[in-house]
Amino acid sequence: MDKIHIEGLEVLSLIGVYDWERQYQQRLIVDVVLNVDLAKAAESDDVTFTLNYAEVAQGLSEFAAKSEFKLIEALASNMVDWLLITFPVLQKVQLKLSKPDILATAKNVAVEFSREKFH
């Protein structure tokens, strides 16, 4: 299956369960693998036959900025659902959402969700 990877996309979101976390938007990192048929794009070298990954990145940034989830689990799950609904050509989405600045003693905390469309 063909894949498009977007790695290290920085987004801002109001996220967290504690009052001090909810005072400002926090930096999150999105890594996403988008399974989509790229054969026609590769064969034709025509951009109209591929997924516009700039739109995907912008959409994820806007989705995160507008959300007010407490848990990164909820935000990540909803991001995956949004991708599958918004971009019908997607066959499968794997999304890792990282909250790198939350634990002083750890480099990163992340959750990962993977969902595919059933035909």
Structural class: alpha+beta
N→C terminal distance: 15 Å
Percent of sequence in beta strands: 25-35%
Biggest sheet details: 4 strands, antiparallel
Rg is 15 Å
Name the average pLDDT.
Answer: 95
Beta strand count: 4
Overall geometry: elongated
Catalogue the unreliable spans: none
Arrangement of strands in the largest sheet: 1-2-3-4
Q: What's a concise summary of this model?
A:
With 119 residues, the protein is α+β, with helices and mostly antiparallel strands.
Give your account of this protein's structure.
With 119 residues, the chain is α+β, with helices and mostly antiparallel strands. It is 29% helix and 29% strand. A 4-stranded antiparallel sheet has the order 1-2-3-4, covered by helices on one side. The longest helix has 15 residues, at 72-86.
Write the layout of secondary structure elements.
Blueprint: E1 3-13, E2 26-35, H1 39-44, H2 53-66, H3 72-86, E3 92-98, E4 110-116
Antiparallel strand pairs: 1-2, 2-3, 3-4
Keywords:
about 120 residues; alpha+beta; four-stranded antiparallel beta sheet; 3 helices
